[in-house]
Amino acid sequence: MPYLPVIGLGAVSSAGYGVKKAYAAVADGAGCLTSLSVFDSGLKQVPLCGQVPEKPEIRLGAEVPDATTGFALWAAKEALIDITDLKGLRLGVVLATTVAGMTRSELFFRELRDKPEFVRHAGVFLAHHEPTATTGVVARQVGALGFHTLSTACSTGLHAVGMAKRLIEQGVYDVCLAVGSDALSILTVRGFASLMLIDFDGCKPFDKRRVGISLGEGAGALLLASPEAAAKLGREAVGYVAGWGASADCHHMTAPHPEGRGARMAVEKALAEAALAPSDIGLIAAHGTATPDNDVSEIKAMRAVFEKLPPFCSMKGTLGHTLAASGTLEAVCALRALRDGVIPATAGFEELDEAIGAAPSGRATAELRFVLKTSFGFGGNNAAVVLAKERRL
Amino acid sequence: MKYLPILSAAMVEPARESAWADEVPAKMKRRDPRIWQLAMVAANRAIQAASVRPKSIVAGTALGALDETRGYLDGVFKDGFGSPRNFIASVHNSMAGKLAVEFGIDGPNLTVCEGQNSFASCLVAASVLDSGDFPALVLVVDENIELLRRIVPHLSNQCREFLSETWSEAAVAFVAGAPGPKSAPCLAALGPRRSEGVEPCALCAQLASELGLDASIVAPLSRTSDSFVKPAVCACERYTSSQKGDHLIGSYSPTADAAALVLLCV
After folding, report:
1. A236: in domain
2. B70 touches chain A (CB under 8 A)
3. Would you say residue A393 lies in a domain?
4. Which chain B residue's Cα is nearest to A248?
5. Which of these, A327, A324, A287, A329, lies nearest to A25 by C-alpha position?
6. Predicted ipTM of the assembly
7. A324-356 pLDDT per residue, tens
8. Which of A93, A190, B22, B89 is deepest in the core (most CB within 10 A)?
9. Chain A: nearest CA to B112, how far in angstroms?
10. Digit-coded pLDDT (tens) for A20-48
């Protein structure tokens, strides 16, 4: 399979709007987690979260149905910036989301419980609860021909990248946006709290003291193109998508396989598609959620693939865990790191965990040619993508 | 266009089939959401009929386990605590994850949420898998729950046209082989495509012409899209009744304002 050019990037994150801000924060391991203020979660302790500092409608200058849609739209538009004419090329959108319009649904359910007459607002509720509604808005605003909506929890973003790659290779589209977007919501904050998977003081990926995640919100967008389409649009590649791998743990609905079996399979598939040996990988941009189970099983999986573990990092101490957005948002930052030869710092990490037996790198420079990005989700869902700096000869 | 050979198909329609619940494994009956149970029975029937274990799963659902979402939020808003079980089940892909665990399917596990276009979008998603990931279980499921029955009368006219009050629910499962040339029986899909103001039936006809097929054989949208699952139900019925020839099944999602087309060759 050829490496597919990425010709545009977009990001909305706890660092603000734009790829530049997200990447700078990630590279430095900056602390961008703040006390949850988007809504009152009702929890006794207010958790630190990766909140987007400004509402998307302010940045877009127009109303949006909900924050998930707004973030997705902003990131998509940044990825398409300066492309005023698609020159007859067929644009597709593959959008990843788990939350979609849930923030509206929460208002609906809250009101409906006390006021049965609130049912008259059902049309607005249903229209935005369906994840396809989010994709429909983005597709319409960017002038896409067609679109697809994926929802596989925290692994979704990388599946969107893989699907976009394949749809271009099959000739369905000439250019395709892979967008992941999720807003903070009561459902996810309370849900992860009920599973006792939140670190209220801020997550500590791969650290001995880690107790759970910090939720985040935002969006990441990668604009993929066939080489011919990239040339027609006059856009240079900012990097390449070399391979995608997907698998299922078949183990547990929420806990990862203890030996990282499924994660290993996904990584091996991505490497195989990229026609690379494990030793070619210069950096692993890990899922690194900071839950006690994830970080152990993820490193076990990597040890099973890599004879010598490459440098690795987690971006979640800076961005929070942005769920379906995490794959694309972190892939955007990984592509920038690849270009600059930077191994990002891992915010929150201080103390080595003997159970993991490896520490993420601090910020460093390195000659990078290939980066592995991983994402794992509920249902034992695994995804891996290999990003390349240069086109395969 | 990728053509997925059909190895088997099965369906559960609770409105027509009261005994389906007898096939739900006892441990699922006790604790798992009804929508998972519907999916489990349809998947099991299709897998048994195909006599092969799929290597991957592509599931489609418009609203997923909406009752679980509501149950969780009701718990939070009323009692200050939601059940973790409700939360886990509320995640759209939890159903496909459950099927992977139960059947030991360790390949790609995708969930598509495309409203009425979910079946078409599932087929497109399945077509991007590697040939080694086949056979694939392609499954579409949505429920008719009390909440939906309450809110349908309050939907906009456009939504009501495509979501009738006689809302149907079903789980439909196909086991599909690796994509190949068009050869009956097989499935393929085009879209979803933005309508851009084009009337849904006209858009489906346009998609049919892109396939070089006669638009007049598109099944009327008024019959096939009056619930999220109807396009898949329609395909399953035509396949199992061995209606020979090409069948085009249109779908339209008013929330996304997009249409899609499924081609079933029997």
Report:
1. yes
2. yes
3. no
4. B106
5. A329
6. 0.97
7. 999 999 999 999 999 999 999 999 999 999 999
8. A93
9. 5
10. 999 999 999 999 999 999 999 999 999 99
